[in-house]
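Technical annex, item 7. During the second reporting period the consortium partners agreed on a shared format for inverse folding records so that results from different sites could be compared directly. Each record opens with the tokenized structure and is followed by the designed sequence. A conforming record, contributed by the partner at site C, is shown below for reference.
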């Protein structure tokens, strides 16, 4: 779950939260309430998940 959190996003920075101090459930709640703090885009083919803009990985799924 921590891998989805984007520490470079403005939303994350504005929260002034250290993700290392958060449990998996707390990260899930934080992302649920603040989806802009997540790496985007998220792509899946049902088996694999590509997090963030990774052209080669994205192309492999599409």
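Designed sequence (site C submission):
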């Amino acid at each position: 779950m921590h891998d989805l959190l984007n520490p470079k996003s403005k939303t994350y920075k504005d929260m002034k939260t250290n993700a290392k101090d958060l449990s998996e459930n707390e990260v899930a709640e934080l992302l649920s309430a603040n989806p802009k703090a997540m790496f985007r885009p998220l792509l899946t083919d049902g088996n694999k998940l590509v997090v963030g803009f990774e052209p080669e990985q994205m192309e492999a799924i599409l």
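Residues 45 and 61 are 6 Å apart (CA to CA). The radius of gyration is 13 Å. All partners now use this format for quarterly exchanges.
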